[in-house]
Amino acid sequence: MSLLESKVLTFGGVPQPKLERCRAGIIPAPLEVTVTYGEGAAQGPLAIMSASANMELYDEVLGSSPVDQGIYTHYRVDTSGPVEACLDRIQAAVSAELDAGRLPVVLGGEHTVTVGALRAMKERFGTDFTVLVMDAHLDMRQDYEGERLSHATVMRRATEMGLAVRWVGARSCSREEAEFVARQGLEPMWAHETHADPNWLERALDGLSGPVYLSLDIDGLDSGIMPATGTPEPGGLSWQQATAWLDAVCARHQVLGLDMVELAPLAGQTAWDFTAARLLYRALGLIFRGAK
């Protein structure tokens, strides 16, 4: 083990597994440049990793320990300097995982990190996959506070790459975004629909085919169970709804990669870090179970 690897806090707190035997590689990317309300997203990756070291690694729902499949933790991406340069480094890191045949798992940081990941995914797979987003916000602004690369514009950039985008848990957007998605024929699964429609899960995945990329913005969860984020919104997904959606997605579709973003830890309140770590671990277990 190199000196660099010895300084890495591994997922689950287990000894760093042999890289060549791992099915997933975690890429911490603590970017925090364009946040506009609550701060602290740069501390999200470390908080998730720290909490994961205190989880029970046996998942009672899956009946297995997903960590046994091999989850490698890379040293964090350098997120200093211009945002574009940071995204280039994230893209390179994701591409390296794809080249090695591992599932790339990007931990933000702000949601802008997803742009770098999606560039790598498109470079490898073209546009033959769908971006599935759990998020309180549509993130479809053309620009935000003069910035085209922002947490508030990330899915607009995705559509400009020619990628299909579908949301679950959305409940906050600007008039501009609402008008844009209507013109494009996009139909977000609004959070209020998940609470009112017993068939929301089937509707969320109706007509979806082929592989997917998962982007898990932690504010997609209801602020009652996830207040540790820059813009917590009431009325979001419950733990049961979020995990049911992940279960259905992973059972039906190949997952090419994923990210988890926007955790902004609250001092002395580790429950939310633990929630994020458990959600990520459940997602990985479901992906491993569903992979062919």
Write a brief structural summary.
By secondary structure, the chain is of the alpha/beta class. The chain has one domain: Arginase, Chain A (3-Layer(aba) Sandwich), CATH 3.40.800.
Going across the biggest sheet, name each strand in turn. Answer: 2-1-3-8-7-4-5-6
Overall number of domains: 1
In helices, the fraction of residues equals 25-40%
What is the ordering of alpha helices and beta strands? Answer: HEHEHEHEHEHEHHEHEH
What proportion strand?
Answer: 5-15%
Number of helices: 10
The general outline is globular
Largest sheet: 8 strands, parallel
CATH superfamily: Ureohydrolase domain
| CATH structural architecture | 3-Layer(aba) Sandwich
Beginning-to-end CA distance, first to last residue: 31 Å
Q: Tell me the structural class.
A: alpha/beta
User: Low-confidence parts lasting 5 or more residues at pLDDT below 50?
Assistant: 1-6
Q: Could you tell me the mean pLDDT?
A: 93
CATH class: Alpha Beta
At the third CATH level, what is the topology name?
A: Arginase, Chain A
List keywords for this structure.
292 residues, eight-stranded parallel β-sheet, 8 strands, alpha/beta, globular
